[in-house]
Amino acid sequence: MSCEILLTDGVMVMLQITAATFKTWKVWRVQFVDGREVMLYKCGEEWVQRNEDHLDKDAIIAIGKCIDGIGQKKA
Questions:
Q1: Which of 19, 36, 59, 74 is deepest in the core (most CB within 10 A)?
Q2: pLDDT in tens, 4-56
Q3: In whole angstroms, what is the distance from residue 11 CA to residue 22 CA?
Q4: 3-state secondary structure of 63
Q5: Which of 38, 35, 34, 27 is nearest to 11 (CA)?
Q6: What share of residues in the chain are helix, strand, coil (percent, to 5)?
Q7: pLDDT band at 73 (very low <50, low <70, confident <90, very high)
Q8: The whole model's pTM is what?
Q9: H or E element, residue 70
Q10: pLDDT at residue 57 in the model
Q11: What distance lies between CA 57 and its chain's CA centroid?
Q12: CA distance linking residue 32 with residue 5, whole number of Å
């Protein structure tokens, strides 16, 4: 699935998001057009990133809202 978000620096970016399973967790692999890749997962109602990823909290929330919105469209 593709998603477009507005980052805190005012730049609109296109993302490619795919769902996957890591061990027993459902995770979302997020790929940016510049080649960067991050992995997010949901802990309760909060979106969390891997320790190796370095997104700011606002970007995590924006991407999480995009993923949640896509999930609601399928229902």
A1: 59
A2: 988 888 889 999 999 999 888 899 999 999 899 999 999 999 999 988 888 98
A3: 30
A4: helix
A5: 34
A6: 25, 45, 30
A7: low
A8: 0.81
A9: helix 57-74
A10: 92
A11: 11
A12: 11
Q: Which amino acid is at 68?
A: D
Is 39 within 8 Å of 53 (Cβ atoms)? yes
Q: Which residue has the tokens 């790929």?
A: 31
Residue pair 53/38 in contact by the 8 Å Cβ criterion = yes
Give the CA angle between residues 7, 38, 4 to the nearest 5°. Answer: 35
d(CA 51, CA 3): 23
Burial of 64 (0-12, 13-18, 19+ CB in 10 A): buried
Does 75 score more than 50 pLDDT? no
Q: What is the dihedral of CA 67, 3, 40, 50, to 10 degrees?
A: -160
Residue carrying structure tokens 């997962």:
41
